[in-house]
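Retry 2 of 3 after timeout on previous attempt. Resubmitting structure tokens to design endpoint.
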């Protein structure tokens, strides 16, 4: 028996079962492998036994690797990109520079968000904006919406809001990142998607796309974020949860920003919320039918790399 067996990864405990000698001390046991024919037979059996163990381990490892290779089907792609899609588009919305720009345009605080994000719906009543936003306190939305569209017509506010996304992208997307390819793939996904249950997505998709690859990538990713958000809201309602309960479970720290002064008790409801999240991923999966399997893998790699870079 030579050291190559150990190099091939046989666990020491298996070796000790057939050879009760600490590994690495072969040379100190010459009497064991003497000229006695019976001992030579034993030695050959030991070698055969260990070879068999190694073979079984290697086959098991190979089988596990094969079983573990999950093709990038649509559901896998939806699951692998869910967090990145849900988060990247929110960064420009939380950026102080966005609201500084809003102030320069005449907005005051949060009404730029409400008029800018909801502006893609056009000149509608505040209840339609509340319906699209899903998780916001209705009276708060009405106040912010009516004051916001008093500053700027809704579609113009939406375009101004989109421009802050472009500005954020230019400042934060790394220069060495392949934004052009991500923009191309994200656009392909957005263009092939249905607008059902996603009015903000439908409206955002109609806005002018920036020419810059960085800005275009963030623009299309925000479209996908609005799409997934609309589907998620539908799945929340279908699960039996109130949207405010969902907010209390997932992001209670955002309650004040969304206009709420108190949150409901949600003990025992997290599993229901998690099931709604799983349903969202399943419902969003069809979007990836627009891409080939190789493109899905490429998109997942790119969007998650960008997400990691932006998180720092």
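Retry 2 succeeded. Sequence:
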């Amino acid at each position: 028996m030579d050291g190559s067996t150990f190099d091939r990864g046989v666990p020491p405990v298996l070796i000790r079962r057939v050879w009760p000698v600490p590994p690495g001390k072969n040379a100190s046991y010459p009497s064991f492998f003497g000229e006695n024919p019976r001992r030579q037979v034993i030695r050959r059996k030991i070698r055969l036994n260990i070879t068999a163990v190694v073979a079984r381990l290697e086959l098991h490892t190979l089988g596990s690797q094969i079983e573990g290779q999950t093709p990038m089907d649509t559901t896998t792609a939806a699951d692998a990109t869910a967090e990145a899609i849900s988060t990247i588009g929110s960064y420009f919305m939380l950026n102080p520079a966005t609201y500084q720009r809003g102030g320069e345009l005449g907005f005051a605080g949060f009404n730029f968000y409400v008029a800018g994000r909801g502006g893609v719906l056009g000149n509608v009543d505040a209840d339609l904006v509340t319906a699209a936003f899903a998780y916001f306190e209705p009276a708060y939305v009405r106040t912010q919406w009516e004051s916001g569209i008093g500053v700027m017509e809704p579609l113009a506010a939406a375009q101004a809001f989109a421009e802050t996304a472009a500005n954020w992208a230019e400042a934060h997307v790394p220069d060495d990142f392949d934004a052009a390819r991500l923009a191309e793939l994200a656009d392909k996904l957005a263009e092939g998607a249905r607008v059902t249950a996603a009015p903000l997505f439908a409206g955002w998709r109609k806005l002018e796309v920036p020419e810059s690859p960085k800005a275009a990538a963030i623009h299309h990713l925000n479209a996908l974020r609005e799409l997934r958000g609309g589907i998620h809201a539908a799945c929340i309602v279908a699960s039996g949860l109130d949207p405010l309960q969902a907010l209390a479970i997932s992001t209670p720290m955002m309650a004040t920003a969304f206009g709420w002064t108190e949150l409901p008790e949600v003990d025992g409801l997290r599993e229901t919320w998690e099931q709604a999240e799983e349903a969202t991923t399943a419902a969003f999966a069809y979007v990836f039918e627009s891409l080939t399997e190789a493109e899905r893998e490429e998109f997942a790699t790119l969007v998650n790399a960008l997400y990691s870079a932006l998180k720092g």
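Attempt log closed. The longest helix spans residues 37-68.
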